[in-house]
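Weekly modeling sync, notes
Attendees: S.R. (lead), two postdocs, one rotation student

Agenda item 3: backlog of single-chain predictions. S.R. asked that every request posted to the team notebook include the full sequence so nobody has to chase files. The rotation student volunteered to paste the first one in as an example of the format we agreed on. Action items at the bottom.

Example entry:
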Amino acid sequence: MHPPEDFGDNWSDSLERGDLAKLADYFRSRELVRDYLSFINFRVGGSDNIVSLAGTKGRGITFEVPRNSLMTAVDYEIFDDLLIGNFMKTTLHKFDSLYDGDFNFAVTKFGDNGRAKTHREVDAYLREYRLRAGADWYYHRLYENTLDRVRSKAIAYLPRESSTWRVAYQMYRMLVASRLSRDHTSLIALLARRRALLPRFCCGTGATR
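Predicted structure, as returned to the notebook:
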């Protein structure tokens, strides 16, 4: 087990000059986030650093995270790495899930990966995505929303081990298993398609067939 300092993270490091401006530019440029939340607070080195946004008053997020990882994620526009890294402490204020208001999609999928940040760019991005994906797009969105609702609402707030909790938990496990199975099948199909495009070589002779 290596300490976080080995990877450049020190939980006592504070933001440096210019960091808060970078954070503000990054999140304000994602207009879905800007218009849904009223603030994002970055607790770095024990100090709160607030980016004010234009959304519903009191609705916001507190991220407690070491400076190095935070600024690296923002500089390289890979914020999803922080969300899935399981070490950043996240507190939601007056909303229930990072999928509410499309925060997760707006920041990581649309903004970082798709380079779509304004409302107009996101609309164009989704139109193209729906055109290419067809009915699979609607299925995926419904599936992910259902999975998140079961996890964030039913499992989190029902009395643990109650009959209702057990039903919700079994549903959640079935949904996760279904997603893993589907992802595995998609990966195999992708690898098969890529393999079919490669030339086949015979017994080290270099001859193709």
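Discussion: group reviewed the output briefly. The longest strand covers residues 39-44.
Action items: rotation student to repeat for the remaining queue; S.R. to check formatting next week.
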